Amino acid sequence: MSTTDTPPAHRTRTGHCLCGAISYRFDAQPEAVVVCHCGHCQRHTGSAFSVNVLVARDSLEIEGAPRSYRTTGAENGNPRDRLFCGDCGTPIFTVLHERPDLMIVKAGTLDDPTGLEPSAEVWLRRAQDWVEPGAHRARFDGDAKERRDPHGTKEQIMSFQTINPATGEFVKEFPFQSDDEVFAALDTADRLYREDWRFRPVAERARIVARAAEILRERRDEYVEYLTLEMGKVTRFGSFEVDLVADILDYYAEHGERFLAAQELPGEPGAKLITEPIGVILAIEPWNFPYYQPARVAASQLVAGNVVLMKHAESVPQSALAFARLFEEAGAPEGAYPNLFCDIDQIGRLIDDFRVRGVTLTGSERAGASVGERAGRNLKKAVLELGGSDPALILEGAPLDHAVEQVVRGRTYNSGQGCVNIKRVIVVGRDRGEQMLAALEERFAAIKVGDPKDEETQVGPLSSERALEGLLRQIREAEEAGGRIVHGGHRVDRPGFYLEPTIITDITEDNPLFHEEAFGPVLSFYVVDSEDEAIRLANATRFGLGGYVFDADVEHAQQVAARVEAGMVYINSCFADSPSLPFGGVKNSGFGRELAELGIGEFLNRKLVRIAQ
Question: Computed from CA positions of residues 309, 312, 318, 319, in that sequence, does the dihedral angle turn out positive or negative?
Answer without folding.
Answer: negative
